[in-house]
Design a protein that fits this description.
The protein contains 13 helices and eleven strands. It is of the alpha/beta class. It has a domain of 132 residues: Peroxisomal Thiolase, Chain A, domain 1. Strands 3-2-4-7-1-8-11-10-9 form a nine-stranded mixed β-sheet, sandwiched between helices. Strands 5-6 form a two-stranded antiparallel sheet. Helix 2 links the parallel strand 2 and strand 3.
């Protein structure tokens, strides 16, 4: 006899608010950690478990991602005394965090485990630098690099610059508009004790910095750091017994692609990125739209990536991204602040996971900024966003993270305060 149910478990509505992020943890953002990626990962996962108020034995699933470095989940689990019911370590960078959150939800939904730790550990400055330099740079040319390097596309900036240039050509986007992303994120970082770069810079500073790869100036590019980061995912029912206010997951998109991945410029507008397709999954699945989002965490490997994603996910009309990022909207105190920790441009480069961590803290109303702690252990936020002050967004209820791997691939997630 077939088993029937009144609940349509295939509907995205079935999963809304059913899962939560209950713990976040990281190591300091440094240049020269003096630690292996295994040590960085172990510290970050341990800190996230502690933040959730759990014991290591409570975790029975582990997921990680890496691109040329990091370490594998079973080693981190063993160092923490954890026996895993499921683990998976995937190849990937910037679009991985949100995708793995979706995988964690599926694992728990399928009954394969109950509490999943997700981590990313990288010595992104001292060991494996994305541009092909660093202590462990002697890698053979293989795979896609056989094609890319012949065209001078060795680094991310070189690979992405045709998309940036085309947007300037198509819509008249000006370098000074996009430079505002760095200036605003530096304001946010100046109120973040953890940020690697805390100094505020101006649009003029960005434009005066040397050209790395047209149209990218040095200050249009993210900081390189060594660090480990981790988050803990579990069911909302279990999360209610943990120590922090609920941070519920409304919807996830995992590694959504343009019609062609390897040479995306051969199909569709070059100046359109994967968010144009991902938004058709994200907003229906999460039951909200761009107008409902209070805070965004838009991947900022470069100033242009933030602008392109905010545009293609529908926070402004196509071609108006330059105005959106430069008119004060994304600034603390603006209508929809972006990357309130300083993001990859200023806090540290983590392939996206630190911006999820930041939005979790924003939804807890407990961003670990420069504000004092009260008798109850909670931050006493002043909402004074001047240098060295607060970075908590007032009354934030819904956030969106927009992950990025390249123009052709992206992931995203909507969370809300429970």
């Amino acid at each position: 006899m077939p088993v029937t149910s009144d609940i349509d478990a295939t509907s995205p509505k079935y999963l809304r608010d059913k899962y939560a992020i209950i713990g976040v943890g990281e190591t300091p953002y440094l240049r020269g950690s003096g630690k292996t990626t295994r040590a960085l990962a172990t510290i970050a996962v341990r800190n996230a478990i502690s933040d959730a108020g759990l014991k290591p034995a409570d975790v029975d699933g582990m997921l990680s991602y890496q691109s040329g470095d990091s370490t594998f989940s079973p080693f981190v689990a063993g160092d923490l005394g954890i026996r895993l019911n499921f683990y998976m370590d995937v190849f990937g960078g910037g679009s991985s965090t949100e995708a793995l959150v979706g995988m964690a939800i599926g694992l728990i939904e399928a009954g394969m485990c109950k509490v999943v730790a997700i981590f990313r550990a990288m010595n992104g400055y001292s060991q494996v630098r994305i541009g092909g330099t660093g202590a462990r740079a002697a890698a053979p040319i293989s795979g896609d690099m056989l094609h890319n390097r012949a065209y001078g596309w060795q680094s991310a900036g070189q690979s992405f610059s045709p998309t940036f240039m085309r947007h300037m050509y198509d819509y008249g986007t000006r370098p000074e508009q996009v430079a505002a992303v760095k200036a605003i994120h530096s304001e946010h970082a100046s109120n973040n004790p953890k940020a690697y770069y805390k100094e505020r810079v101006t649009v003029a500073d960005v434009l005066a910095s040397r050209i790395i790869c047209k149209p990218l100036h040095l200050l249009d590019c993210c900081v390189e750091t060594d660090n480990g980061n981790a988050i803990i995912v579990t069911s909302a029912d279990r999360a209610r017994d943990c120590r922090h206010p609920l941070v519920l997951i409304r919807g996830v998109v995992g590694r959504c692609n343009k019609p062609r991945l390897d040479m995306h410029y051969q199909h569709g507008p070059i100046s359109t990125v994967a968010g144009r397709y991902a938004r058709d999954i994200l907003w229906p699945n999460s039951g909200v739209g761009p107008e409902d989002i209070d805070v965004t965490g838009s991947y900022d490997a470069f100033t242009f990536t933030t602008m392109l994603q905010l545009e293609d996910y529908g926070f402004c009309k196509k071609g108006e991204g330059g105005d959106y990022v430069s008119d004060g909207t994304i600034r603390l105190g603006g209508r929809r602040p972006n990357n309130t920790s300083g993001g990859h441009l200023c806090e540290g480069y983590t392939h996206g996971i630190n911006m999820v961590i930041e939005n979790v803290r924003q939804l807890r109303h407990d961003a670990d900024d420069s504000c004092p702690t009260g008798p109850d252990g909670r931050r006493q936020h002043t909402f004074d966003y001047r240098e060295g002050g607060c970075r908590q967004v007032k009354n934030v209820e819904v956030t969106a993270n927009l992950g990025w791997a390249m123009p052709a691939t992206g992931s995203a997630m909507v969370m809300r305060r429970g």
